[in-house]
Amino acid sequence: MVARPKASVAPPSVRGRRQLTSDAAAWLASLQSVATEYRRAKAEESISEQRETVRLRRVARQDARAAANTELDRQRTRSLLA
């Protein structure tokens, strides 16, 4: 069995720890920015879907009202001709 040299296990220097902390902070800030953007996009998508649902319901109500008015007009016409 060949002995391998041991890797250095010395703790990182103060400067090295600061650099690691700085790198981690930048990575975390980037991750938070991506998460915020994702949540914003999802919220906009949800709002858009809700607006479309409201629009479709409004159109359906208007169509139902128009159909009801048409049927009332037919009934009035029939009663006048009867």
Radius of gyration: 35 Å
Compute the separation of the termini in Å. 112 Å
* Uncertain parts: none
Largest sheet composition:
none
Order of helices and strands: H
Number of strands: 0
Question: Can you tell me the overall shape?
Answer: rod-shaped
Helical content class: over 70%
Number of helices: 1
Oligomer: single chain
Overall mean pLDDT: 88
How would you explain this protein's 3D organization?
The chain is mainly α and 82 residues long. The protein has a domain at 47-82. It has 1 helix and no strands. The chain has one helix spanning 14-81. It is rod-shaped and about 110 Å long. It starts with 13 loop residues before the first helix and ends with a helix. The mean pLDDT is 88.
Brief digest:
The chain is mostly helical. The protein has one helix at 14-81. The mean pLDDT is 88.
What structural keywords apply?
1 helix, 82 residues, mainly alpha, single chain
Topology at a glance:
Layout: H1 14-81
